[in-house]
Amino acid sequence: MSTTLAPVDPYSQAQGFATPDLSMAPLLAVEALGVRMGIQQILSDVSLRVPERGVITVLGANGVGKTTLMRTISGVYRASTGRIAFAGEPIERLRPHRIVARGLAQAPEGRQIFSNMSVRENLILGAGRAKSAERRQVLEEVLGRFPVLAERMVQQAGSLSGGEQQMLCIGRALMSRPRLLLLDEPSLGLAPRLVRQIFALILSIRGSGTSILLVEQNVRAALEVADHAYVMESGRIVLAGKAAELRDDRRVKDVYLGGSIH
Known about the structure:
Blueprint: H1 10-13, E1 28-37, E2 40-50, E3 55-59, H2 66-73, E4 81-86, E5 89-90, H3 96-102, E6 104-107, H4 119-126, H5 132-145, H6 147-150, H7 162-174, E7 180-184, H8 192-207, E8 211-215, H9 219-225, E9 228-233, E10 236-242, H10 243-247, H11 250-257
Parallel strand pairs: 3-8, 3-9, 6-7, 7-8
Antiparallel strand pairs: 1-2, 1-4, 4-5, 9-10
Helix pairs in contact: 4-7
């Protein structure tokens, strides 16, 4: 059975949120981050801030270091220089499961669900060591956000459609009740109507109080839902500002909004 989508316009919903004050102490602060792999410098002097209840997007072409940035924040890769602070505490030396326990979760690029496990088993894994009562409660919350997953709880995750797998990936991350959700290319490979569903979901998650750091190649859609944006090239931040201002920036228009990335 195919996924039933509601006719949602995420762009009109974005107008209902106040822009977070980036001068306040951020929930996430990345300062002068550098990442090396062997002799190759992947990230250089990357700094960004994610405020409470904000949506921040990182834009750029393939291969500029966006996924490396996300994996370093979530503890999969180790920073060679710089600092990462979450809720005021350094996390750049913590292992991924300890970062999740602090309240930061990632929905990775490519979904990375466990294809041979059921939808329910995938979701339960996201809850970590939560007590059974709490796990049941958060599972109900996640299924309320993703009713299509409730219909497929015993189904193998690998048999889901691409859009359903992306919902499962995000739902699994939400099972830990994160204060900050990292979304790495959530619209990749999805049909346009599913893309609109995913971006409406981003706004819904933000509306529930969760901050979001979004890496996305769909620049137009990302700038519509984000408060603030950073543009990466060759492992560096080359442009930053309010999303509404960057939508009108000539450099962004020429490179991203008028070129091969839509």
